[in-house]
Design a protein that fits this description.
The protein has helices at 13-26, 41-51, 60-84, 95-105, 110-121, 136-149, 151-154, 164-180, 194-207, and strands spanning 2-6, 31-35, 88-92, 128-133, 185-189. The chain has 211 residues and is an alpha/beta fold. The chain has one domain (2-207): Rossmann fold (3-Layer(aba) Sandwich), CATH 3.40.50. It has a 5-stranded parallel sheet with strand order 2-3-1-4-5, sandwiched between helices. Helix 2 (41-51) runs antiparallel to helix 3 (60-84), helix 4 runs antiparallel to helix 5 (110-121) and helix 4 (95-105) packs across helix 8 (164-180). It is globular. Bound molecules: thymidine-5'-diphosphate.
Length: 211
C-alpha cells in the first residue's frame, strides 16, 4: 500500500506521518516512512538546494525540474523497490505538491505538470492521499514558530518566505485538486489537536476500507 500526505507548511504532516507509521507497524506492516523532497541520496542534495532561503533567484522552471528530478529518483530507487519488497510506503508530500505549488502557486500549467509528473512517477500513484487542510494564516504562523525554534527548519524556509497570497493559492489549489480527484483523497480538518486529526484519519481509512 502506498499512501501520501499533503498540505501546506505547518499543517502537521510530519506528526501525522509518524503516527501513521506507528499505527501500521503495530498492525504488522513493514512500513517505510519517507518524504519529498529528499527521500533518496540524490534527493537530499536537491532538497538542500531547492529549500535554501538564500537561493532567491531560482526561476519557476528550474524549481519545477529540481522537484521532478527528486521525485523520479525517489520513485525509482526508494519507493518502487520498497513496494516490490512487500513494504508499505507512507510519503510526506508527493506529485500533488508539484501540481499545487508549481501550478496553482507559481502559475505553471497544471495539464503540463500532470504530464511531467507522469514521467517522474512512471505509473506509480498512491492508493490514498490524505490532505491536511488548514487556513494559510494558521499554517504559516505554526511554520514560522517552528523555524525560530529550530535552525535546521529555518535553513529550509524558502517557501515560508512566500507571502500570504501565495499560500492562499496553495490552500485553494489543494482543495480544487482534491475535488477533481475525490476517490483518491481524504480531506481532514487540520486545525484540530493532533490526536483528533489522527482519529479523523483512521475513521477515513475505515470508511475507504483500507484498514
Ligand atoms: P517540507 O519541509 O516538506 O515542507 P513542510 O514545511 O510543509 O514540512 O518542504 C517542502 C517544500 O517544498 C514545501 O514548501 C513545498 C515545496 N514543494 C514544492 O513546491 N513542490 C513539490 O513538488 C514538493 C514535493 C514540495
Amino acid at each position: 500500500m502506498f499512501i501520501t500526505v499533503e498540505g501546506m507548511e505547518g499543517c502537521g504532516k510530519s506528526t501525522q506521518c509518524a503516527k501513521l507509521e506507528e499505527y501500521f507497524t503495530r498492525l504488522g506492516f513493514d512500513v517505510l516512512r519517507t518524504r519529498e523532497p529528499g527521500g533518496s541520496a540524490l534527493g537530499r542534495e536537491l532538497r538542500r538546494i531547492v529549500l535554501d532561503p538564500q537561493n532567491t533567484d531560482i526561476c519557476s522552471g528550474s524549481e519545477l525540474f529540481l522537484y521532478l528530478a527528486d521525485r523520479a529518483q525517489h520513485v525509482a530507487t526508494v519507493i518502487r523497490p520498497a513496494l516490490e519488497n512487500g513494504r508499505m510506503v507512507i510519503c510526506d508530500r508527493f506529485a500533488d505538491s508539484t501540481i499545487v505549488y508549481q501550478g496553482y502557486g507559481r502559475g505553471l500549467d497544471p495539464g503540463m505538470l500532470c504530464q511531467l509528473n507522469e514521467v517522474a512517477v512512471a505509473g506509480l500513484w498512491p492508493v490514498l492521499t490524505i490532505l491536511l487542510d488548514l487556513a494559510p494564516e494558521q499554517g504559516l504562523s505554526r511554520a514560522l514558530a517552528r523555524n525560530t525554534q529550530d535552525k535546521a527548519c529555518a535553513a529550509e524556509g524558502r517557501f515560508e518566505a512566500e507571502n500570504l497570497a501565495f499560500h492562499t493559492r496553495v490552500r485553494q489549489g489543494y482543495l480544487t485538486w482534491a475535488a477533481l480527484h475525490r476517490p483518491r483523497f481524504l480531506i481532514i480538518d487540520a486545525a484540530q489537536e493532533p490526536d483528533q486529526v489522527f482519529a479523523a484519519i483512521i475513521r477515513g481509512l475505515e470508511e475507504k476500507n483500507l484498514v
